Amino acid sequence: MCEITKQPEIKVATGDRAILPEGAKTIPIFVMGKKYDVPETLTIMKAMEFAGFKFLRGAGCRGGICGACPTVFRMAGDYKLHFGLACQTVVEANMYLAQIPFFPANRASYNIEEMSAAADAIHALYPEIFRCVACNLCTKACPMEVKVMDYIAALKQGQIDKAARISFDCIQCGLCASRCMGEIPQYHVAQLARRIFGKFIQPRFEHLVSRVKEIESGKYDQMLDELTKMDHETLKKKYVEREREPDLSSLGAWKPKETQYL
Ligand code: SF4
Ligand code: SF4
Ligand code: FES
Q1: Does 1.25.40 match the CATH number of domain 12-99?
Q2: Which ligand places an atom closest to the C-alpha of 128?
Q3: For residue 86, how far is its CA from the centre of ligand 3 (angstroms)?
Q4: Which residues, in sequence order, are CB contacts of 137 under 8 Å at separation 6+?
Q5: Per CATH, which fold does 112-201 belong to?
Q6: Is residue 148 lining ligand 2, measured as CB closer than 6 Å?
Q7: Average pLDDT in the 147-173 region?
Q8: Mean pLDDT, rounded, of the chain
Q9: CB of 137 shorter than 6 A to ligand 2
Q10: Which residue has better confidence, 8 or 259?
Q11: pLDDT at 7
Q12: CB of 48 closer than 6 A to ligand 3?
C-alpha cells in the first residue's frame, strides 16, 4: 500500500530569506531594540539574516578569522555586557544585541623599513599605551581570548617579542579598544609589534630564503606556464591526482616521485 507522506508545512517568518519548517523552535532576540523570532540554533549573523538584515559591511570570512563582525550583547535582566563574533556566537533567548563592525581607533602611520627592533618607535607612535590603568576590560572583551592587557604591559616594558607572541591570535576586531578607558588602540599597537618582530627579531628561515631565490631565478616558470594554459578539467584532474605528503610523516622522511622541481 502506498502511503502519502505529509510534507512539513513551510511558513515564511520575518525577513525576505526566512523560511522556517513547521515545528522548528524559535527564540526571541532583540536587534537594535526590535524583537525578532529566530531559530534557536543559528549564529547571530545567520539569525540577523533570517530576520531580514543584509550585511553590506560587518561580515567577511564567516569563519571567525577576519574580525569584521564584533558584536556586543546583554541578556535580559542581567547587567553584564558580553562580547562575541556574530559569525561564531549562537543566539540565546532574550539577547539584546548590537554590531560594532568598525571602531574608530587611532592608527599611526609609519614606514616599517625605517624602523628597528627597538621599542622607542612604538612608544613614540602610540604614547597612549602609558595611559593603561590595568583594568583588564580589554582582555575580558576579547572574543579570541587574547591577553590584551598583558601585551600592552609587555610593550610598555619594551618587550616586543613577548607582545607579538601574546597577540598572535588577534583578528583586529576592535572590541578591546571599545572598552578601553585609556583610549588605547590595542590591536593596532600589537599589529605594529608583530610587524617589527617578523622583520627585525624573528630569525629568517633559511628554507624560505632559498625557496624565494629559486622562484626569482625562474625555476618554476615553465611549470606555472604549463598549469596556467591547462583547461579547467585537466587542471582539476591534476589536482586530484597530485602527490601528497602523508599528514604524519616525519620531517624530511617523504619525497615525491616527481623530483624535477626539488
Ligand atoms: S585583541 Fe582586541 S582586536 Fe584583537 S581579537 Fe582581541 S578584542 Fe579583537
Ligand atoms: S582596557 Fe585599556 S586601560 Fe584597561 S587594561 Fe586594557 S589597555 Fe589598559
Ligand atoms: S565574519 Fe569574519 S570573523 Fe566573523
Answers
A1: no
A2: 2
A3: 7
A4: 179, 180, 181
A5: Fumarate Reductase Iron-sulfur Protein; Chain B, domain 2 (1.10.1060)
A6: yes
A7: 98
A8: 91
A9: yes
A10: 259
A11: 52
A12: no
